[in-house]
Amino acid sequence: MSLIDELKLPVDKLRTKARVGELGFQSTDEICCEEHLIGQERAVSSISFGLSLESKGYNIFVVGNPGSGRTTYAMNRIMALAKDMPAPDDWVYAYNFSNPSAPLAINMPAGQGRELAKELDELVKELKVVLSKTFEDSQYEDTKARYVKEFQEQVNEYMEELRKAALERGFSIKRTPQGFVNVPLVKVVAEDGSVAYREMQQEEFETLGEEERKDLQGKSEEISQKTLEVLRRIRDLEKSLRERIKELEANICRSAIGPYLKELKDHFGANGKLRGWIDELSEDIIKNFNIFIAAARDESAEVDFSRYGVNVIVENRPEEGAPVIRETNPTYYNLIGKVEYESRQGYLYTDFTKIVAGAIHKANGGFLILEAEELFRHFLSWEALKRVLKTGQLMIENIGEQWGYIPFSSLRPEPIPMDVKVVIIGTRWIYYLLNLYDPEFPKLFKVKADFDVDMPRTVEAERDLANFVAGFTQKEKLPPFTADAVGEVIEWASRLADHGNRMTTRFNQLAEVLVEAAAWARKENEDQVAGSHVRKAISEKQFRTNLVEERMRRAFEDGTLYIDTRGEKVGQVNGLTVVDLVDHRFAHPVRITANVFMGREGVVNIEREVKLTGPIHNKGLLTLSSYLGRQYAQDMPLALSAHLAFEQVYGGIEGDSASSTELYCLVSALSDLPLKQSIGVTGSVDQFGNVQPIGGVNEKIEGFFKYCKVQGLTGDQGVMIPESNVVHLMLDHEVMQAVQEGKFHIWAIRHVDEGIEILTGVPAGKMDEAGNFPEGTVHARAKQKLRAFMERSAKLKKELGEEPKKSEDEGNG
C-alpha cells in the first residue's frame, strides 16, 4: 500500500456518529424530562459551595459564555435554595420627630410592614373623629372656662390692689393703646362735705411748684414700678393658664388616643425601636391635636398627616422565603435607591415618603443577581455595590449631592444594615480584568463558578442532551423529535464544539436549531421532527448568513479569484484560511507561491515585508526557516533567497496554520518538483518538521470541497490535515458522501515528509548519518540545488576577484 493510501482517512473517522441506538427511545415524547444542568459539574459544585457559605466576602462570580445556561441555572438554583430560607424583615422609613431631615429606618417581621402602614392610616382617620368628639365634650369646655374664670378673678384682684395702691398715692391708672398711664388726682370737697377726686389737668400740673412736681413724679415712678410688678404677675398667670389648659388638653388627648396607641404597640411593639417611635408619635399627636380637629370639621382643609404614617420600602412574605432579585438595569439609583423630589410652586420638596428602595434593599436577607456587562455600563454602580459589601450597610445618597458644585440640604435617611449574597454573571475577560485592576474584587468575590464551553461526549451526556431536547420541545410546545433527529442535534453539538468527542454547552445555539427544525417539520405537515429536518434547519441557517462566502466563491467561478484545483505546479500550493464573521465561519483556499534564487536574504515573506502579517504568522515563518537550516545546512551554509506570497490576499494575515503549506512550497521550488493542486493543505510545523494541529479544520475541509465541486470533482482531490486534528472532525454529510464515493479524500499526516510525498508523489528521503539523502528523493534534489547555489556563488566571487569574508573569530585569531 502506498503512503498516499495509507494515510487516507476512512469515512468513519470523519464524523463521530451519535449512538442513537443507546438513547433508549424512538421519539422524545417518550422521555420523562428531568431538568438539570448538563456538563457543568465544576460550576454546579462552585455555586453550591458559594451559596452554602455565610462568611463575608463569599459572593459568587459566575464565569461563562452567553447561552451556556449560566443565568438560568444560577437563578433556578438560588430560587430553590431561597424558598426554604426564612423570609427576612420588612423595612420601613418613618418620620424622625427629633430630626426630620434624618428619617428613621425600622425593621419588622416579614409581612408586617404593609400592615403597619395600613393601621397607621386607619389610626389617623379614627383619631380625627375621636379627638373632634372629645374636645366637643362640655366637660372640657367647663374645665377650661373655670381655669379662665380663676385666671380673670386673680387678674382683677391684682388690678384692684394696684388701683388702691395708686389711689393711696393720689393717682389713678388709665389704660391706653401705649400702655398704662399714671394720672395725678385732685381732691374735691362737695358742699355736702363729701370727698371726691378728679384728674389733674395739664395746666394745673404746670402751675405747681417744683417741689410738688418732683413729689408727684416720685409717686408716679413708685406706681409704675408697682404696675410692672403686677403685669409680670399677670403674665405668669397667663403662662400658668396656658400650661394648665395645655395640660388639660394633653390629658384629655392622651386619654382619648391612649387605647388606640396601646393596641398599636401590642400588635407591633415587640421591636424596641418601633415602640419608641410610637411613643414619639403619641406625643406629637398630643401637641398637634388641633389639626385632627380642623380636618374633621372641614374635610376640604389641606392638612398633611404624612408624618404619622410609614414608608414601606421593603416588604417580604413569610411563605415565600428569602428574596431573589435579578436587576437587569443596575443603574446607580436602581441599585441603592433614591430620594425623589416633588415640584411645588417652583420649589423642590421632599420628605421621608419620597424614599424609594433599590435592588439591594429588596435583596437584603436574600440574593442579588447582576449581569457584569450591564453593571459596568452604568456610572458609579460598581463602586456603590462594593461600598455596601465592604461596610455591610446601605446609605441612600443622591448623585447630585456627591458631584454637584454647590452643596445643598437634603434628607439623610438612616443607613440600613445589609446581609445579601451577590451573584454576578459575566464573561472571562471581565473576570480577569477585575482581578487585574481592582484589588478589592478578589476580597469581595471569593467564589468563581466557571461554566465550560463544552463537555465530554459520553453516552450519559448524549442522553442528557436528548433529555434537554425533550424538555425544550415540551416547554415550547414543539413537535417531538425522533431518535435520528436527536442524533443529528448531538452531532451538531459536537460540530459547534469543534471536537468529535465533546459537545458544546451553548444550549441557546442548539435551541435555535430545535425551533427551526420544528418549523420545517410543520411546513411539511409532519407530526414529528426527523433527522432531515434538523439538517435542513442547519443548512438554511447557514444559507441566511453565508452571503460573503458565496460572493467569494462567485469570484472564483468568474475567474476573478485564481485558484487551481487540478494539475500540478512547481512552487505553488493551495493553503486554507478561515474567515470568522461572528455569525458565520467559513474557509476558502489561498494560492501560496514561492520563488527561490541565489542570494543571502533567506526566506522572505512578502506580506510580512509590507506589514500585512501578525506576530503568530511571523513566528511560523521563523520556525520554517529554522527547519530549513536543520534539514539542509548541517554541512554547508544555507545560501539562498526565497520569496513567499499569499496571492490575491490584500488584508491582514494571522496564525501559523499555513507554515507547513509555505514549507511545501519552498521545498517544491528547491527540488523543482510540482505539487498537486488538487490537494488543499493546512497545518503548522515545528522546527523538526512535525505537523501540529490547527483550528477550523472542518471549515477548511468543507471550504476546499466546495471550490473543487464548482470545477467538478475528479476523484483525486482532497485535503491534507494534521493527524492530531482527526479527533476534531465533524464533517458535513455532503463531504462524507463524496468521500464514501471516492470523489474526495482526506489525509492525516504527522510529519512534513509524509505531506511532501503525498503532494509530489516522490519520497521525501531520510537523512543518513553522513547528512545525505537518498538519490532522487525530494530532500536530495532540494539540497543539491542549494549546494549548486553555494558553489556557483563561490565561483562567481572568485571570478570577480572578491575574497570571502572572514568570520570574526578568524579575524581575531
Structural overview:
There is one protein chain. The chain starts with a helix and ends with a helix. The strands form ten sheets. Strands 23-24-22-21-26-29-30 form a seven-stranded mixed β-sheet, with helices on both faces. The chain is elongated, with a radius of gyration of 49 Å. It has 813 residues and is α/β, with parallel strands linked by helices. The chain is built from 29 helices and 30 strands. Among the domains are: 70-88 and 316-450, 3-Layer(aba) Sandwich (Rossmann fold), CATH 3.40.50.300; 134-297, no CATH class; 557-799, Ribosomal Protein S5, domain 2. Strand 27 (684-685) and strand 28 (691-692) form a beta hairpin. Helix content is 48%, strand content 16%.
CATH topology of the domain at 557-799: Ribosomal Protein S5, domain 2
Q: Would you report the number of β strands?
A: 30
Strand order of the largest sheet: 23-24-22-21-26-29-30
Mean pLDDT: 87
- Computed over alpha carbons, the radius of gyration is 49 Å
Q: Largest sheet, if any? A: 7 strands, mixed
Helix coverage percent of residues?
Answer: 40-55%
Which residue ranges are poorly predicted, with pLDDT under 50 across at least 5 consecutive positions? 806-813
Q: Could you say what the CATH architecture of the domain at 557-799 is?
A: 2-Layer Sandwich
CATH class of the domain at 557-799: Alpha Beta
- Spatial separation of the terminal alpha carbons: 57 Å
Strand content: 15-25%
Helix and strand composition category = alpha/beta
Helical stretch tally: 29
Write down the overall geometry. elongated
